[in-house]
Design goal:
Elements: H1 2-25, H2 39-43, H3 57-64, E1 69-70, E2 77-79, E3 84-86, E4 99-100, H4 102-108
Antiparallel strand pairs: 1-4, 2-3
Bound molecules: calcium ion (CA) (2 copies).
One calcium ion binds at residues 93, 95, 97, 99-101, 104.
Length: 115
């Protein structure tokens, strides 16, 4: 009885070790805890606010609609005469400090795109 138990234990140990070796050499271990960032996101320019592959006046307009606003709602204003609401846009907050200000514009648009 004891010998059978020992044999069973040895078989389980061999199966376990084989699984570990296969897992390690297959590259699945150790698993990374870092979030996966696609190459698309990495290659995207910061100033491409509409994500169409360029940095033009359309992107600048998106920036302007967020200028002088903050993540807490400060500066947000409805501008029905222009057909839009000025509000915080995290894409326009290039330095991520919670407000869209001139320092973000300098990061995003060192040269203001032509219309
Ligand atoms: Ca664009
Ligand atoms: Ca900012």
């Amino acid at each position: 009885m004891r010998q059978k138990l020992l044999i069973l234990l040895c078989i389980l140990l061999v199966v376990f070790l084989t699984t570990m070796v296969v897992t390690i050499f297959s590259g699945e271990y150790p698993r990374s805890n870092k979030p996966e960032i696609s190459n698309e996101v990495l290659s995207r320019k910061l100033c491409d606010l509409d994500n169409d592959g360029d940095c033009d006046y359309d992107d600048y307009k998106i920036y302007l609609r967020a200028e002088r606003t903050c993540i807490d709602g400060r500066g947000a204003i409805d501008l029905p005469q222009y057909g839009f609401k000025r509000e915080y846009n995290p894409l326009a907050d290039a330095n991520g400090d919670g407000c869209v200000l001139a320092d973000d514009r300098e990061l995003l648009f060192p040269v203001i795109p032509e219309r």
